[in-house]
Amino acid sequence: MLTRKYSSSSFLVNKEDAMLEAAPVADLTSHLGYWLRLVSNHVSHAFARKLEAEGVTVAEWVLLRELYGVPSLGPSRLADTMGLTRGAISKLADRLIRKQLVVREDRADDARAHLLALTPAGRDLVPRLAAHADTNDAAFFGHLTREERAALEGLLKTIALKRGLKAMPLA
Description:
Number of helices: 7
Oligomer: single chain
CATH class: Mainly Alpha
Helix content: 55-70%
């Protein structure tokens, strides 16, 4: 049903739209998303700064960590695991190859395909980067009791599972 909205430029509007305008607007801080984003931004930014000091980005760290402990992986497998395109993996790999942290190896069973593997420098770097991740977690979540931390992790995992969130956070 259309009703007239009175103003200096009077025109017909949908009555339901007019009701939406009158609805109260909640404070930003009343939304869980606000608090999740606030904490996430600070945790992520602090971690990114630590990695920057080591010469890598968060996305590069994730790729390095995925390669750690395995002889090599194919770009397609990394793309699936990390929730990225093969093109994005290729660009990340190129940057890490230039930094001499990753090498591209030919596959023995398929001349058209290749695998990615850590160099000795890359293998040595991953534990240092992991220590930064641990330090960052301790700085932001160390005050939580073991039970609080388990509850928070459980709730976040439940939300991720319910929403089908699988792509790794890279930024």
